[in-house]
Specification:
Strand content: under 5%
Number of strands: 0
Distance between the termini: 67 Å
Largest sheet: none
Structural class: mainly alpha
Number of helices: 3
Oligomer: single chain
Length: about 130
């Protein structure tokens, strides 16, 4: 089967429509990489909580402080490609760019994690 062809004989999504300006494609790729990098940083933060907060002192607060960034990071890494592809398709078909539902979820999950970490550090220092 030739490269880029599909078993059903249709055109692959990345060959549909018109080729967008390469600058927009590269900007879309940079956005994908930024989302992915942020997701990896959140997962690393969860790992840091798991490694540096002792299990016997962690409690529910420490567990949530590790779980929230892990889930948010996994969500962000998992949806980075989906978002990149949706934007790329919209550009190829000259449609408006799709809105992201992930960003509000990320903001809502990161804010309580930051506040929880602040409170945990405050309690540990006293």
């Amino acid at each position: 089967m030739p490269t880029g062809s599909r078993p059903d004989g249709g055109t692959p999504w990345y060959e549909e429509g018109e080729e967008p300006d390469y600058r927009f494609s590269l900007a879309n790729e940079r956005t994908f990489l930024a989302w992915f990098r942020t997701g990896l940083a959140l997962i690393a933060a969860a790992l840091a909580v798991a490694q540096f907060v002792p299990a016997h002192t962690r409690g529910i607060t420490g567990t949530l402080l590790g779980a929230v960034p892990a889930v948010a990071g996994a969500l962000l890494c998992g949806t980075a490609y989906v978002r990149w592809r949706a934007v790329q398709r919209a550009m190829r078909h000259r449609r408006p760019l799709p809105r992201s539902r992930v960003l509000p979820v990320l903001a809502v999950s990161a804010a309580p994690a930051g506040i929880g970490l602040f409170l945990l550090l405050l309690l540990r220092s006293s």
